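Section handout 9: paired folding examples.
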Amino acid sequence: MIDDDGYRPNVGIVICNRQGQVLWARRYGQHSWQFPQGGINPGESPEQAMYRELFEEVGLSRKDVKILASTRNWLRYKLPKRLVRWGHKTCLYWTKTALVPFAVNK
């Protein structure tokens, strides 16, 4: 789902623990690092997308995390050309970012 300006809705997630450490993960098969993130599917809220991406990318469920904060407004950014995977297309995103603490439930 891309808007009229060419931006794709996306969520980004910063996961932290009680010690203040954050998860900064290396992308599989690449030499780049990022926070968990992903697109928002049609009919999905940013929060629903965040929980789905958390599970898909790091195996965490809703019960494993708590939302501490999120961006008030959408953030727009354009991927650098060296990170564009879809040939010659420019990738632009609208992003909502959430900060969630992670605690292992035992």
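Moving on to protein 2 of 2.
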Amino acid sequence: MIVTAEQPLKKPDWLRGRIGSGSNCNRMTSLVREKGLHTVCDEALCPNKGECWEQGRATIMILGGVCSRKCRFCNVQEGAPSGCDMEEPARVAEAVKEMGLDEVVITSVTRDDLPDQGAFIWAETIRRIKEAVPGILVEVLIPDFGGDKDHLQTVLDAGPDVLGHNLETVRRLYGSPRPQANSWQSLELLRRASKQGFMTKTGVMLGLGETV
């Protein structure tokens, strides 16, 4: 153990998270509660929530707040989800319109418990948003739908502008952070969407033991 008398370095101001308390942040908070929506910002305890909400940005999470999987890097509640809110797409569209957005990001929990793993709600949400706000850019960050190509096609047919699906880590490490997922399955999902002309994107975490 190394003992030092030096004072620890303080975090720079730009790195410090600020609790949102501005008028726009309060408006966003009220709107999310009024519409009964979930956001990644809340469910994942994102430290940037205050800053983003004050600027009118939020990532809406559909299909409830309980995930049927247990990825070890995620703070979203896992367990046995119950039911499916068929009115959720309409409420999401209303909220997006009231927020005055010209671009929105939608994600969801994984719903292995549903026959279509939530594909219909995904598609309906995309359609409702585009009807409510013509010209809006809709970016989606979707689960793997268990590798079912028909469920994926249901979402693609709704016409998202950007389709995201995160690989999260390299194939060798998949069993640790994502024990219920498969890297080949995720790559195939992205390939299918890209082959149909959709703009696709993915994300990975660094520092889990990968090598260059």
